């Protein structure tokens, strides 16, 4: 798996934002849309900040951009403090010229009997637009991508996933205690991630070094869903030096 190492997360984030901007401009010049798969969490924040800067200072327009987020907690409303709807509005959407109708995030408020159909439609919508041109990913300490937890099949579809204990523990502070962390989330499946034309996984810091080493150099296994990316033909792991420390 190709890895790109940077001295800092800032530097790495600028390079990734630059790649996304180049894709958007390329599509603009063709009169086409750029279909982006987006992630939340602490890792991609600087990429979004850099895209906002490019919008303000370099005239980068998002009018031809269509986005699909990876996941949302179930059940969490779009205005809840920890909701990924809110995260995306605050970290990106409200600060650029994207059409809100072009921004898709799994709906965490659906009645349970409607979730299956919603998930089918979410994937169908991506396919109708010609697939994801670019998928941005973070990685959980347990190797999850999106909320595809260990045990997820390589062909898994978009679905309601029961969150791992590690995942819930890592979110505990944000939710003011483990008991408040949702037990489930809707996540884009591994299959749709693997079908993206380009995948960029970001990871910063020592606490991710061990799992990144397993994902990049270990066996391809359902115990480390990020290891499936070894089978993608156009993927990059973008790391800062401390995160790359365990790589041989
Ligand atoms: C978020 C997502 C998750 C995170 C991962 C890392 O949309 O899909 O897989 O990317 O849990 O989270 P941070 O970046 O907060 O360490």
UniProtKB/TrEMBL annotation:
Entry keyword Hydrolase = yes
GO MF annotation terms: glucosamine-6-phosphate deaminase activity
Q: Which residues form the Glucosamine/galactosamine-6-phosphate isomerase domain?
A: 8-233
Task: Report what the protein is called.
Answer: Glucosamine-6-phosphate deaminase
Key words of the record: Hydrolase
Source organism per entry reads Larkinella humicola
Question: What is the top-level taxon of the source organism?
Answer: Bacteria
Tell me the part of the parent protein that is shown. 20 to 267 of 643
Q: What are the BP-aspect GO terms? A: carbohydrate metabolic process; N-acetylglucosamine catabolic process
């Amino acid at each position: 798996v190709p890895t790109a190492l940077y001295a800092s997360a800032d530097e790495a984030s600028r390079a990734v934002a630059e790649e996304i901007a180049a894709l958007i401009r390329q599509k603009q010049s063709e009169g086409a849309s750029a279909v982006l798969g987006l992630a939340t969490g602490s890792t991609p924040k600087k990429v979004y900040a850099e895209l906002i800067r490019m919008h303000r200072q370099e005239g980068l327009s998002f009018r031809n951009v269509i986005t699909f987020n990876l996941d949302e907690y179930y059940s969490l409303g779009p205005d809840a403090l920890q909701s990924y709807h809110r995260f995306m509005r605050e970290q990106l959407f409200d600060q650029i010229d994207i059409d809100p109708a072009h921004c898709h995030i799994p709906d965490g408020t659906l009645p349970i009997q409607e979730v299956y159909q919603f998930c089918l439609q979410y994937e169908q919508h991506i396919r109708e637009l010609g697939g994801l041109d670019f998928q941005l990913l973070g990685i959980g300490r347990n190797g999850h991508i999106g909320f595809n937890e260990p045990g997820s099949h390589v062909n898994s579809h978009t679905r309601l996933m029961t969150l791992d204990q590690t995942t819930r523990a890592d979110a505990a502070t944000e939710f003011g205690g483990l008991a408040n962390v949702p037990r489930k989330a809707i996540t884009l499946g591994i299959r749709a991630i693997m079908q993206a034309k380009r995948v960029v996984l970001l990871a910063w810091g020592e606490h991710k070094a061990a799992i990144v080493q397993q994902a990049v150099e270990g066996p391809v296994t359902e115990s480390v869903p990020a290891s499936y990316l070894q089978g993608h033909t156009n993927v990059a792991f973008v790391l800062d030096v401390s995160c790359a420390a365990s790589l041989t």
